[in-house]
């Protein structure tokens, strides 16, 4: 195996696939990056038990030759050293290998690296080319950003640690919940896929990081156990979570006593200040109250530190002019942070009923937060 | 006690004094910031057992009124909450206190904070106004930056964890060493102070952080146990380390067999690459060798990972054209990083003799690094 490659292209590909390589692993082979040289391309792969990332470098990029393959082949190199090394090489990298060693040369710098056993490296899953959707990268980014934070961080109920994607009647619905709060986002999209599957949050965060705004269209392919996101030379494979995702549609069909229209940014800032004094062991309790029939009082209290309260204007109020509820301030902050619209509609059904938070004029995004006992 | 203050001025002062406030402390009072309101100023103090920082806000800053004191007084507030809170307040802060509580109001936001007992707060040391030096902030910055990294990180020999300042014949000499490497920087400066004292590295790093480039002149005051750095409204007090600092002047009077003039940046990059493969438990060993009578070979080897070697040009060579030495690559990197000059003179006295590293054309800065057995 022998090739010469532009160091920046190699560096970028190593960066991408390294996202899937753990810094510690029971199987040493998974600490490696697999490099496959073919006549017309170089492919790098990094993987762990949940996710695999593949990055392909063609011979030419933007009309410039970036790769020349003299002899095809494949090998596995330790990701950490390869990444640190290539970052610090000044120019083109000339890689050449025999059975047990590989030499990398750049300018007057020569390195010899021990290789890992390429035979041990796991194969990537094969994806049928029937079950495929095309989605704009910006849309996928929004779907992920507005749902993934609401997934559970606890492994006790594994299915809730992912985001559920379901396709029905040309609508994709993404839902995440930790059973105390929920975020749901829909998108109208033509699709031949039907049904529902749940993707681990960590995988979606990788997709969001690597494919954020960089490409116009992402192709999503599916098998029973695996999903792949592909764009340009980059593919992110993820296992799917097993189990049935709870049906959440009934949770959103509620009646509300009081509906407030508020300024999203002001409300976020007010909640942010109030959570300063809301101690962690008390679920970051923040209290909301309507005072003088027309204003919102946001407050929190800690016997140890002190109290904080502030009054905010309400842009519009529908229903009962009374309200007194305690919410987890951290949940409210995270909910408001992903709302891009300037105005937010907050609907209350009583002090023990979940609160519905929606951007005004965008029915595609709905969030629920359960109140806490104050 | 009552005053109204510009929130940005208050925020800046809290930031400065908070540097001295630990996040945990045996004495709860040291988790607080002391605030003293006088007719014409507001003073904030943060401290721990090693360092105290005082920041003073006058009534006017840049022709603008920033402070109005209605009633003088003093109190102590928990640093963490005060800092988090003031950062998030939208405008002027109105602070008012009674015996056990203080209220802070900004716009429609009202907070009440529990106060700590002001009587418990330790007093700042008094500095005699005889023992004083004036130094340019840029000079002090250079002195600190070029020495402090070489101090010992181990508490086993406490005096070596500081930087020794000694004044003699209008020359200030700063030295730091961990007994394996040493950095010495001199500065010509008129001074009425004589003698030598050792300042904890952590205190110097605070001074460097807070007074870096911001002010033109820093005043240094001394007592037997304390040093203070003062500039504009800011004072940093530090305890001095007890004990006698070792005499290092004889270490620098050596004979050398080979002297090389090298490009500082290229050498730094080469050493940086070579340390990639130099495992930590082997002291980051990097080998230097003269090859073909004219070039420098930089290499390192790890049986686990592989080898790296590169050849660099030597700008000038004096003395024996042979050299083979192993050095701690991390020490060499740190030494080269603080050299601003483009060319560096490296002098070798044999494979077991310390290496002298100096910038070309600047006799004020000298560094020694002991070799390691290869």
TrEMBL record, chains A, B:
Confers DNA tethering and processivity to DNA polymerases and other proteins. Acts as a clamp, forming a ring around DNA (a reaction catalyzed by the clamp-loading complex) which diffuses in an ATP-independent manner freely and bidirectionally along dsDNA. Initially characterized for its ability to contact the catalytic subunit of DNA polymerase III (Pol III), a complex, multichain enzyme responsible for most of the replicative synthesis in bacteria; Pol III exhibits 3'-5' exonuclease proofreading activity. Forms a ring-shaped head-to-tail homodimer around DNA. Keywords: Cytoplasm, DNA replication, DNA-binding, DNA-directed DNA polymerase, Nucleotidyltransferase, Transferase. The keyword Transferase applies. Belongs to the beta sliding clamp family. Residues 251-373 form the DNA polymerase III beta sliding clamp C-terminal domain. The lineage of its organism: Bacteria, Bacillati, Bacillota, Bacilli, Bacillales. GO terms for biological process: DNA strand elongation involved in DNA replication. It comes from Pullulanibacillus pueri. This is Beta sliding clamp. The keyword Nucleotidyltransferase applies. PANTHER family: BETA SLIDING CLAMP (PTHR30478:SF0), DNA POLYMERASE III SUBUNIT BETA (PTHR30478). It is found in: Cytoplasm. Pfam families: DNA_pol3_beta, DNA_pol3_beta_2, DNA_pol3_beta_3. One of its GO terms (molecular function) is 3'-5' exonuclease activity. Residues 135-247 form the DNA polymerase III beta sliding clamp central domain. Residues 1-125 form the DNA polymerase III beta sliding clamp N-terminal domain.
